Amino acid sequence: MSAAHSADAHGMKITLHVWRQRRASDAGGFETYRVSDVSPDMSFLEMLDVLNERLAVEGRDPIAFDHDCREGICGACSLVINGQPHGPDRETTTCQLHMRRFRDGDVITVEPFRADAFPVVKDLVVDRSAFDRILRAGGYVSVNAGSAPEANSLPVPRPAAERAMDAAACIGCGACVAACPNAAAMLFVAAKVSHLALLPQGGPERTARALALVGAMDREGFGNCSNHFECEAACPKGISVANIARLNREFLRASVDGASGDA
Ligand code: SF4
Ligand code: FES
After folding, report:
1. Ligand whose nearest atom lies closest to the CA of 184
2. What is the C-alpha to C-alpha distance for residues 43 and 49, in angstroms, rounded to an integer?
3. Which bound ligand lies closest to the C-alpha atom of 172?
4. What pTM does this model have?
């Protein structure tokens, strides 16, 4: 019998220490809540929904947290649970984490992603628009509008296609930044640069893209990578740090091309 199932017929009892912060300029602090009747089959966010419904009924301010798809696709959910971005399960977003992972009577600490480049908006919601600005700097390919090209006109070797697809799995959640002791965004930028650098469609803007994304990352105030690799461990999509090595090669290549006037 699992620990979760050892709870009585009314479900698990969980104590939460939740970061509350009314606005970015407030200091913020932890508040404690007790939640009963927690089903092991609830997702972590559903457990927070239950708590919020109770807070609303009591006339108290519900806890603000980000979510959208609740299917591990959109990257919106973003909690640090017991010190781990997205919680204790590997390659699992917060929205896909279930309460069966915890025990009856557990005490769980819930915080927002913490990084200077991700300022707190309210409670557990942070502003991750820095990622949008990095992508706007060059995370795209330019194509001529018109009729769809013939599917086989641009063959892509299967190994390159698979590595590109692996990098394209990045959902832009920011857990890599939250996990990094330097709050570096290297894994995110590496995934975006790799995804396009590996494909022929990304070739024409390859040099400009590497320089633009790294430049935007630096301007947004993210820290420097010092090879802790906490990013890979926290990433819910299994993005490999091998992409960071590829980003470094792309940036070096682009810098040399740019210095020789070949950019
Ligand atoms: S690299 Fe992983 S952790 Fe970082 S933003 Fe992409 S999916 Fe999230
Ligand atoms: S809510 Fe979309 S990935 Fe979690």
Report:
1. 1
2. 10
3. 1
4. 0.92
Instruction: Extract the tokens encoding 128.
Output: 């991750």
Tokens, residue 229: 């690799």
Q: Is 218 in the pocket of ligand 2 (CB under 6 A)?
A: no
Helix axes 186-197, 129-136, angle to 10 degrees: 30
CB 199 within 8 A of CB 164: yes
Phi, psi of 29 (to 5 degrees): 180, 170
Is ligand 2 within 6 A of the CB of residue 194?
A: no
Give the Cα separation of 61 and 73 in Å (integer): 28
Nearest to 137 by CA among 77, 196, 68, 178: 196
| Element (DSSP H or E) covering residue 17 | strand 12-20
Least confident of 3-12, 88-97, 206-215, 226-235: 3-12
pLDDT value at residue 5: 46
Integer Cα distance of 18 and 117 in angstroms: 21
Atom number in ligand 2 closest to CA 68: 1
Which one-letter amino acid corresponds to residue 262? D
Distance 245 CA to ligand 1 centre (A): 16
